[in-house]
Amino acid sequence: MLPRRLVPLAAIGALLVLIPLIALASRVDWASFWPLVTSEASLASLLLSLRTATIAAALCLLLGVPLGVALHRARFRGASFARAVVLAPLVLPPVVGGLALLYAFGRRGLLGGTLEAFGVEIAFTTAAVVMAQTFVALPFMVLAVESALSSRTGRHEAIAATLGARPWTVFRRVTLPALGPALATGTVLAFARAVGEFGATLTFAGSLQGVTRTAPLEIYLAREADPGAAVALGVVLVVVAIVVVGATFRRAAAG
């Protein structure tokens, strides 16, 4: 049971989140809501966000699982520092992440010149949007994998190894199936983070309609010229976020 002294603070915390969302919803012109969110600019940015976030979530799943396993099993000196670096995008200002990506993969970046020699340009393309979203969302998958592995004893893996299974077979047949719920949670959270990504995307990918202008960028640009469209699109993203997070925690509670 919640101690009574915590109730006021819990209520203030809830209101701190709830009141801005109610304020946002109160500014929507509901009579024009559907035309606003289905305008050419809104629809293009929303579909681009969903498409790139889906690819970013898939990349987080592909790269985050082995990275999380490697960090969990790392026993070398400096492993804690390596973990801190991998998880840094969680707290890094997004614009700093965008600058880091630009200085790494931009035309004059660390690897940009080499990539350009092979005819590959990443900055200010749709691929840059995916990279920025993956950069900020990857730690969610790594944390989900590490947390799930920390709750396991490793007994089943040890039994499989004593029966002669090779490490890859143990991982594929024993560890990976056990991580299923954590992978689902990590993928959904990575998708939600990717959909809402703004600063790194703007810095690394720019804002070209139909190419790099995602829904958050469209909201930012429309807030002065067409505040009605900005508010309507913002409500759509709020609904997407609530549905995604709600489904994730409902699944976690059921599991």
Automatic annotation (TrEMBL):
<comment type="function">
    <text>Part of the ABC transporter complex CysAWTP (TC 3.A.1.6.1) involved in sulfate/thiosulfate import. Probably responsible for the translocation of the substrate across the membrane.</text>
</comment>
<keyword id="KW-0472">Membrane</keyword>
<feature type="domain" description="ABC transmembrane type-1">
    <location>
        <begin position="46"/>
        <end position="248"/>
    </location>
</feature>
<dbReference type="GO" id="GO:0005886">
    <property type="term" value="C:plasma membrane"/>
</dbReference>
<dbReference type="InterPro" id="IPR011867">
    <property type="entry name" value="ModB_ABC"/>
</dbReference>
<keyword id="KW-0812">Transmembrane</keyword>
<dbReference type="InterPro" id="IPR035906">
    <property type="entry name" value="MetI-like_sf"/>
</dbReference>
<comment type="similarity">
    <text>Belongs to the binding-protein-dependent transport system permease family. CysTW subfamily.</text>
</comment>
<keyword id="KW-0764">Sulfate transport</keyword>
<feature type="transmembrane region" description="Helical">
    <location>
        <begin position="49"/>
        <end position="72"/>
    </location>
</feature>
<feature type="transmembrane region" description="Helical">
    <location>
        <begin position="229"/>
        <end position="249"/>
    </location>
</feature>
<dbReference type="GO" id="GO:0015419">
    <property type="term" value="F:ABC-type sulfate transporter activity"/>
</dbReference>
<keyword id="KW-0813">Transport</keyword>
<protein>
    <recommendedName>
        <fullName>Molybdenum transport system permease</fullName>
    </recommendedName>
</protein>
<keyword id="KW-1003">Cell membrane</keyword>
<feature type="transmembrane region" description="Helical">
    <location>
        <begin position="84"/>
        <end position="105"/>
    </location>
</feature>
<dbReference type="InterPro" id="IPR000515">
    <property type="entry name" value="MetI-like"/>
</dbReference>
<keyword id="KW-1133">Transmembrane helix</keyword>
<dbReference type="InterPro" id="IPR005667">
    <property type="entry name" value="Sulph_transpt2"/>
</dbReference>
<comment type="subunit">
    <text>The complex is composed of two ATP-binding proteins (CysA), two transmembrane proteins (CysT and CysW) and a solute-binding protein (CysP).</text>
</comment>
<dbReference type="InterPro" id="IPR006469">
    <property type="entry name" value="NifC_ABC_porter"/>
</dbReference>
<dbReference type="Pfam" id="PF00528">
    <property type="entry name" value="BPD_transp_1"/>
</dbReference>
<feature type="transmembrane region" description="Helical">
    <location>
        <begin position="117"/>
        <end position="145"/>
    </location>
</feature>
<keyword id="KW-0500">Molybdenum</keyword>
<dbReference type="GO" id="GO:0015098">
    <property type="term" value="F:molybdate ion transmembrane transporter activity"/>
</dbReference>
<comment type="function">
    <text>Part of the binding-protein-dependent transport system for molybdenum; probably responsible for the translocation of the substrate across the membrane.</text>
</comment>
<feature type="transmembrane region" description="Helical">
    <location>
        <begin position="174"/>
        <end position="195"/>
    </location>
</feature>
